[in-house]
Amino acid sequence: MTKLELTGRKAQGERTRKAILETAVHIASAEGLEGLTIGRLALELSMSKSGLFAHFGSKEELQVATVEAARAIFIREVIKPAFEATQGLLRLWKLCDIWLAYVQSGVFRGGCFFAAVAAEFDSRPGAVRDRIAEIMKEWLATLRNAIIEAQDAGHLNKDIDATQLAFEFNSLELGANWAFQLYSDPRAFKRAREAILERLSRYATTAGGPLLSASKTRTSRARG
Amino acid sequence: MTKLELTGRKAQGERTRKAILETAVHIASAEGLEGLTIGRLALELSMSKSGLFAHFGSKEELQVATVEAARAIFIREVIKPAFEATQGLLRLWKLCDIWLAYVQSGVFRGGCFFAAVAAEFDSRPGAVRDRIAEIMKEWLATLRNAIIEAQDAGHLNKDIDATQLAFEFNSLELGANWAFQLYSDPRAFKRAREAILERLSRYATTAGGPLLSASKTRTSRARG
DNA sequence: TGGTAAAACGAACGTTCGTGCTATATACTC
DNA sequence: GAGTATATAGCACGAACGTTCGTTTTACCA
């Protein structure tokens, strides 16, 4: 019930907090969670530093909240759409394809939020780093699960190592993000897709193959 | 001649500069080029901020010099050792294997220097970003060249796309670096090696195959 | 309409940042 | 040993950082 009420004394604060975090995610994806300064954030939102600060209590809390907000966006924009596909090879492919499309779309100036902040915090112990590591592990586990489900559905060869393949797909996605951010070259996404599809089709059973080629043309049409 | 003289009025300054940059590379690999502050650097080297600052003139120049120093280390520790191998499949494998071993060795607290600073500066235009992009392009070109040489030597199938394969290898290396920095899991290197070797052996001709298996056992023995 | 709690503000705190300016210490040349 | 260029130090600056404080505005409820 408390989640649904849009008015009330506490409602305005909640709305402001949401607006702050939305801007925070955008800034942080480009300038990092440390480059995300409270003054800069306040300026962008036309509010006072102190008024903004009161919503969080410390910079670290702001950073953690920003990470959490980015996770919600990621789930909404990538995970959920991919999970509309039926479990199996198609969903696995959708997870990768939508991830790449989302990064390429340029919704965030800095590309993948988590790739950016993971590199920033991987040598900086604390609550922020811990949460980032958890969330990226979630993502890796989601990939791995999708692989196993595709195996269980009979779409994918059963004797491939799901952890290994998830690692490879994740690496290719990170590689595409890296190349696009540094060279603005959209061919990086094509290369990542090609590499992923090559593996999928090589490991696909006769039952899984058709699923894949159907998805491939559909995606191309949507992008072209 | 000027390069060889180790004494002279200008010599001391050169030596200090070198010492500064060596420390700078270590700090920057972990805390980033922006987290690399002049005060912190001076403290670590037991010298004054202004005395240190005089060697560079601006923070940006210090950052560029640090990037240059990291490049020199990378060439000395990865490129040169790999180029001792004969041109062809072996050298290609060495480039990847030594890169992974170097990151795994933990010489830098923050893992691959360039992976770290590329993520930090990819949305920050300027001389630093430009130099980082150039150097990483050099690395990608080195990989691509090694692939083409392996093809020319008859070790590798001629109809594979060298640019595509270089992208995939680079991605797997970045992925291993990412996983190791975030989870301290050395299995990430094993996974990257496995993925690279799988591709190499699949694309290897009958002439190239033996080269690879010889190198594989040699590396395993060296690491065990 | 008056009371009240939440929300936002403005000003200031102590630090640290990069960057000047000026002076001193060092080491080489003549 | 005097002269000189180089290398380092000391000190101060303006700006920005995260954070705290007391106050004012806003919006709901009785």
What does this structure look like?
- Chain A has 224 residues and is an all-alpha fold.
- Chain A is built from ten helices and no strands.
- In chain A, α4 packs across α5 and α5 packs antiparallel against α7.
- The radius of gyration of chain A is 20 Å and the shape is elongated.
- At the A-B interface, α1, α6, α7, α8 and α9 of A face α1, α6, α7, α8 and α9 of B.
Give a concise summary.
The first copy, chain A, has helices at 11-35, 38-44, 49-53, 59-83, 89-104, 113-121, 127-152, 162-183, 187-203, 209-223.
Write the layout of secondary structure elements.
The structure is a homodimer of 224-residue chains.
Chain A: H1 11-35, H2 38-44, H3 49-53, H4 59-83, H5 89-104, H6 113-121, H7 127-152, H8 162-183, H9 187-203, H10 209-223
Chain B binds a DNA duplex (30 and 30 nucleotides) through α1 and α3.
Structural class estimated from helices and strands of chain A? mainly alpha
Number of helical segments with 4 or more residues of chain A: 10
Describe the largest sheet of chain A.
none
Determine the fraction of residues in helical runs of chain A and give it as a percent range.
Answer: over 70%
The oligomeric status of these chains comes to: homodimer
Proportion of strand residues of chain A: under 5%
First-residue to last-residue Cα separation of chain A: 44 Å
Average of per-residue pLDDT values of chain A: 91
Give a count of the beta strands of chain A, DSSP E runs of length 2 or more.
0
The biggest chain-chain interface is: A-B, 41 and 41 residues
Shape of chain A: elongated
